[in-house]
TrEMBL record:
Protein origin, superkingdom: Bacteria
Protein name (Swiss-Prot/TrEMBL): Cytochrome c
Organism: Algoriphagus iocasae
Membrane-traversing stretches: none
The keyword Acetylation is assigned to this record: no
Residue stretches making up the Cytochrome c domain: 614-699
PROSITE patterns xref list: CYTC (PS51007), PKD (PS50093), PROKAR_LIPOPROTEIN (PS51257)
Post-translational modification: Binds 1 heme c group covalently per subunit.
Length: 883
C-alpha cells in the first residue's frame, strides 16, 4: 500500500507534465516549415505601408498615396475607410499608422503623413468608427519641419505598454551629393539637406531620431520620464528617445519589457574609401535605454567616417565613437554627443564577415514584432512557444525574414531564417494578430507602383492537423486541339492524415474527376482553368490551379551540337545545326528566330539561364543581380522611368550608349525628374555596357539580334578562363493560332570551363562550403557525404584531376552516375595524410573515368571508416575534366 501511495504523486507529476507538453508540443522544439501556411487575404495594393490588426481580426492598413483601407475578416471585403490629401513624392505620403492602446473604447488611431502643400510631416489622431476614419476629428499632435523633395522620411508608429507612442524619423538628407558616404558637407552655399549634422547629429532636431511621447486625451502630448535628454536641457529636444539614425523605417516594441527594435537603412557606398570611411551597412538595432546610435559619424559596428573638408577635399580626422562631436555650423544643439551605441546586426552589400547567412545584394533592414504565446488567444493558428521572446528582423530588398533570440543581457544569441522556402515580395510591415497568427503587408516588386504581387497575408501555424500540401502537374500545358493532357497529383502529401485523401479535378467547367491522376481531352481551342482540390480525413481542404491553352502547339527547337555539351575546349571547332518545327505555322519566319553563341565572363551561374521561353540576356541578368529593378521596371515606371521609356527616348541617338554608360556609372538626376539615381562605380564597365545594350535593344531588337547561320561550324576561341562559359541558345516564336497567343521555345547549351570549383555544385549532402583566406573549397563533414553536378556530359572525358587535401583521414572518393550508390565510373585509391608528404596542402589525384554516352547526374561520394569531425575533414579544392 505504501508503494501505491508513493506512486500517485509520481503519476500525477508525469501526467501533469504530459498534459502541459501536449498543449504546446513545440514549446522548445523548432517546428517544420510545413506547419506554417501563408494565406492570401487581398492582393494588388497600391504601395501598402503599415497595418494594425483589430480585435475582431479585421485589418486596418494604409497606402502611401493617402488611402486608409480595411480588410473585413468575416467577409473578405476590402473597405475604403478614408483618404488623406498628402504630398506623395519621394518617400513622403501617408507613412505611419498605430491604434491607441484603448482603441476598443476610444476608437482612436494615429497617422503620420505629409500634408499636401506644406513643408511639414504631421502626426495626428483621428477617430475610426463604423469602418470609417472621421477626418473632421483630427487632432494635430506634432508637426515636423522637413526639407521637402528630399528623402528618408521614416514614419513608423508603435505604442509601448505604458501608452507611450514611438515615432521614427529619417535624417531628411540626400546621400548622393556625398558620393554615398555620410552627408556632412558644411559649405554655406550648399543646400541644407547635404548635411545630416543638422538633423541626425543635432540633439535639437527631431529628424534622424526615434521620439517617445505620451498622447493625452485632449490631443496634446507630454514627455515621459527617461528620454535621452531631460526636459529643459539647453540645445536638446525632450521628445528624443534615440538619435543618430539615418532611416529607421520600421520599428517594433517588445510588449513585455518595452525594448525598442528598428531596422536602419544605411548608405549606398559599395567600397571602403581611405578619404571618407567605411562602405555602407544596414543595421538591426536594439535600445534598452535611450542613446545615440552613430549617424552621420559612424555606421555598422561603429565603423568611423572621416571629418571631410569638401572644399579642400581633405580628410581631417576620424570621428571617435566614445566622444562624437558635432561642430557643423548648421547644428543648433549641443556639440558633445553621447557615446555611439553599436547595433545587434550589421551587413553590407557584399557578404558579411560576421553574418554570412544574410546573403548579398540590396539592403533594406526592418524590424518586426516580438512574440509571446501567452499574449494571444488560444487559437488553432497561434504560433508556438518556440518563438517566445524572439523578435523579427527582415529585409525589404532581400525578401527574407529572420527570428532573433537575445541572451539575458540583451546580446545577440541566435539568428535563424523563418520560412526560407516561402516567397515574400518585399515585406513592408508585420504584426501578430489577436489569434497569434502573423499578418504581413508585402509591397511588391516596384517602388512607387501598384504591384500585382503586393498584398496582405496571414501566416498560420498548425500544431495539429495540417492542410494537405497539393502538388499539381500536367505533361502538357498547351498544344494543338484536340489536346489530351495527363494530369498528376504526384507529390501531394498530408503530413498528418497519411495518404487517405480525396481528390476532385475540375477541367475548366467541362467535366470533373475524382481520380488521383486523370487524363482529359480538350476537344476545342480555348483557355481552360483547371483546379485540383484535395481534402484530408479531418476535412481540411487545399487547392491548386493551372491554365491549359488549347489550339497552338509550342514550336520545337533543337540544337544539334557535335561537340561536348557540358564543357568547352579552347580552339576547338564544333559543327552544329539548328532545326525548327512548328505544327501550325505554314512557314518558319526568319524574323522570329534568334540564334547566338556568346562567351560570358564573370562566373558560371545556373540561375543566369533564365525562365522558360526566354532567351537569356546577360544585360537583363546583370540588372536583376544589381537590384536595379527595385527602381526601374521593364515596362513599369517606378522610382525612375521604365527601361522601355528609356529605350524609346534614345532610339535614334547615336551617342546614347556612351551617354547611358556614363549615367549608370556616375549617377545623376534631372532627365526624368529630380530623383537622384546613385552611381554604380562598383560595377565593372563591361557589365554596365551589357546592361545598356539590353535597355537600348528593347525598342530596337535588331541591336541584340544575332546573325549566325543556322548551320555551320563555330570555333571556341576563348582561352580557358576560370568561371567563364559559352552560352549557345536558339529560340523561335510562332505566329499564334486559333486565338491562342504566340508561343516561344528556347533551347540552350551551356559550355563551362573544364576546371571548376566544387563550391558551385548543384547539390550538397553533408558537404560544407568553406571560405578561408580567399580560398573557396568544400569539406566532407559526414561519412557517405557527396556533392553533385547535374546533367554532365562526360562522353569525351577520360579522366578527372581532383585537387584535394585528405587531412588526417584515410578515405577515398567515388564518382558515380545517377545517385550516391549508382554506377561506379571512377574512384581514387585510399588516400591519407601520407599522400601529402612533400607537397603543399593541396595535391592532385588523377581519376580515370569509364566511357559514358548520355549526360547524367554525377555524384562525388566520400568513403571512409574513420570519424569525420569539424577538426578532421576531407577537403576538395578543384576539379579538372580532361579528354
Amino acid at each position: 500500500m505504501r508503494k501505491l501511495i508513493w506512486l500517485i504523486p509520481v503519476l500525477t507529476f508525469f501526467f501533469g507534465s504530459c498534459t502541459k507538453e501536449e498543449s504546446d508540443p513545440f514549446a522548445t522544439t523548432k517546428p517544420d516549415e510545413s506547419r506554417f501556411t501563408k494565406v492570401t487575404l487581398v492582393e494588388g495594393l497600391n504601395e501598402p505601408m503599415e497595418l494594425e490588426v483589430l480585435e475582431n481580426k479585421d485589418v486596418l492598413f494604409i497606402e502611401r498615396a493617402g488611402k486608409i483601407r480595411l480588410y473585413k475578416n468575416e467577409t473578405g471585403e476590402l473597405v475604403e475607410a478614408g483618404f488623406l490629401d498628402v504630398y506623395p513624392e519621394r518617400e513622403d505620403g501617408l507613412m505611419g499608422l498605430a491604434k491607441d492602446p484603448d482603441f476598443k473604447n476610444n476608437h482612436w488611431i494615429y497617422l503620420y503623413y505629409a500634408p499636401a502643400n506644406t513643408s511639414v510631416n504631421r502626426l495626428s489622431r483621428f477617430e475610426f468608427r463604423n469602418d470609417v476614419v472621421d477626418l473632421s476629428s483630427e487632432k494635430i499632435l506634432l508637426d515636423v519641419p522637413v526639407y521637402r523633395d528630399c528623402c528618408h522620411s521614416g514614419g513608423s508608429l508603435e505604442f509601448d505598454r505604458h501608452g507611450n507612442l514611438f515615432l521614427s524619423l529619417g535624417d531628411d538628407s540626400t546621400p548622393f551629393e556625398s558620393s554615398n558616404f555620410n552627408p556632412i558637407d558644411e559649405r554655406t552655399f550648399r543646400a541644407e539637406n547635404v548635411d545630416a549634422q543638422r538633423s541626425s547629429g543635432n540633439a535639437n532636431d527631431l529628424r534622424g531620431s526615434i521620439i517617445r511621447i505620451h498622447p493625452e486625451a485632449d490631443g496634446t502630448y507630454t514627455i515621459p520620464e527617461g528620454n535621452l535628454f531631460p526636459a529643459g536641457t539647453e540645445g536638446t529636444r525632450p521628445e528624443i528617445y534615440v538619435m543618430g539614425n539615418r532611416n529607421p523605417f520600421r520599428i517594433a516594441i517588445d510588449p513585455h519589457n518595452d525594448n525598442l527594435f528598428w531596422g536602419e537603412v544605411g548608405p549606398d557606398a559599395a567600397e571602403n574609401d581611405s578619404l571618407r570611411g567605411p562602405k555602407g551597412h544596414d543595421e538591426y538595432n536594439l535600445a534598452t535605454k535611450p542613446g545615440f546610435f552613430g549617424w552621420p559619424y559612424f555606421v555598422g559596428d561603429n565603423k568611423a567616417y572621416w571629418k571631410f573638408d569638401f572644399e579642400k577635399e581633405e580628410s581631417l580626422f576620424q570621428f571617435d565613437p566614445n566622444a562624437p562631436l558635432n561642430t557643423s555650423p548648421r547644428n543648433t544643439g549641443i556639440q558633445n554627443l553621447p557615446p555611439a551605441q553599436k547595433p545587434l546586426i550589421w551587413y553590407p552589400y557584399d557578404e558579411s564577415i560576421e553574418f554570412p547567412m544574410l546573403g548579398t545584394g540590396g539592403r533594406n533592414a526592418m524590424a518586426g514584432p516580438v512574440y509571446y504565446r501567452e499574449d494571444y488567444e488560444d487559437s488553432e493558428v497561434r504560433f508556438p512557444g518556440y518563438y517566445n521572446g524572439k523578435s523579427i528582423f527582415y529585409d525589404w530588398m532581400r525578401n527574407w525574414i529572420f527570428m532573433v533570440s537575445l541572451t539575458e543581457n540583451n546580446e545577440l544569441d541566435t539568428l535563424e531564417q523563418f520560412m526560407p522556402n516561402t516567397v515574400f515580395d518585399k515585406p513592408v510591415d508585420m504584426q501578430y494578430g489577436p489569434d497569434g497568427a502573423l499578418y504581413i503587408l508585402e509591397y511588391g516588386t516596384f517602388w512607387r507602383s501598384q504591384n500585382d504581387n503586393s498584398g496582405l497575408y496571414r501566416i498560420e501555424f498548425a500544431a495539429g492537423n495540417r492542410k494537405p500540401n497539393v502538388k499539381m502537374a500536367a505533361n502538357k500545358r498547351n498544344g494543338a486541339s484536340p489536346l489530351t493532357v495527363e494530369f498528376s497529383s504526384e507529390g501531394t502529401k498530408d503530413l498528418d492524415q497519411g495518404d487517405q485523401l480525396e481528390y476532385l479535378w475540375d477541367f475548366g467547367g467541362l467535366a470533373s474527376s475524382k481520380e488521383k491522376n486523370p487524363n482529359f481531352t480538350f476537344d476545342n481551342p480555348g483557355v481552360y482553368p483547371v483546379t485540383l482540390t484535395v481534402k484530408d480525413q479531418a476535412g481540411a481542404l487545399s487547392e491548386s490551379k493551372m491554365e491549359i491553352q488549347v489550339g497552338n502547339e509550342s514550336p520545337k527547337v533543337e540544337i544539334n551540337w557535335k561537340g561536348n555539351r557540358s564543357f568547352y575546349f579552347p580552339e576547338e571547332t564544333v559543327a552544329y545545326e539548328v532545326v525548327i518545327q512548328d505544327e501550325e505555322d505554314s512557314e518558319i519566319l526568319d524574323s522570329n528566330i534568334d540564334f547566338s553563341i556568346d562567351f560570358m565572363e564573370g562566373g558560371y551561374d545556373v540561375i543566369q539561364t533564365g525562365p522558360e521561353e526566354e532567351m537569356l540576356s546577360m544585360g537583363e541578368t546583370l540588372i536583376n543581380q544589381a537590384g536595379c529593378k527595385g527602381c526601374h521596371g521593364i515596362s513599369n515606371k517606378s522610382v525612375g522611368p521604365s527601361y522601355t521609356e528609356v529605350s524609346k527616348k534614345y532610339l535614334n541617338d547615336p551617342e546614347a550608349k556612351n551617354y547611358l554608360i556614363n549615367k549608370v556609372t556616375n549617377g545623376g538626376s534631372g532627365v526624368w525628374g529630380d530623383t537622384q539615381m546613385p552611381g554604380h562605380v562598383h560595377l565593372p564597365k563591361q557589365e554596365i555596357e551589357e546592361m545598356v545594350d539590353f535597355i537600348l535593344s528593347i525598342s530596337n531588337p535588331s541591336l541584340n539580334k544575332r546573325v549566325l547561320p543556322l548551320s555551320g561550324s563555330y570555333t571556341l576561341d576563348q582561352p580557358a578562363m576560370n568561371g567563364g562559359y559559352y552560352l549557345v541558345q536558339a529560340s523561335y516564336e510562332d505566329q499564334g493560332a486559333n486565338g491562342i497567343q504566340p508561343k516561344k521555345t528556347v533551347e540552350q547549351i551551356i559550355l563551362r570551363n573544364t576546371e571548376i570549383s566544387p563550391t558551385i555544385a548543384d547539390l550538397f549532402q553533408d558537404v560544407a562550403k568553406s571560405n578561408e583566406n580567399n580560398s573557396h573549397f568544400v569539406k566532407y563533414t559526414e561519412k557517405n557525404a557527396y556533392f553533385v553536378f547535374k546533367d554532365l556530359d562526360l562522353s569525351s572525358i577520360k579522366s578527372i584531376d581532383m585537387e584535394l587535401d585528405p587531412g588526417n583521414l584515410a578515405a577515398k572518393i567515388e564518382i558515380r552516375k545517377s545517385g550516391p550508390t549508382g554506377e561506379l565510373i571512377g574512384e581514387t585509391k585510399l588516400l591519407d595524410k601520407n599522400d601529402r608528404k612533400g607537397k603543399e596542402n593541396w595535391f592532385e589525384v588523377n581519376i580515370p573515368i569509364q566511357k559514358t554516352t548520355e549526360p547524367s547526374d554525377i555524384y562525388f561520394v566520400i568513403q571512409t571508416d574513420q570519424g569525420i569531425s569539424i577538426w578532421n575533414t576531407f577537403n576538395v579544392n578543384s576539379l579538372h575534366f580532361k579528354r
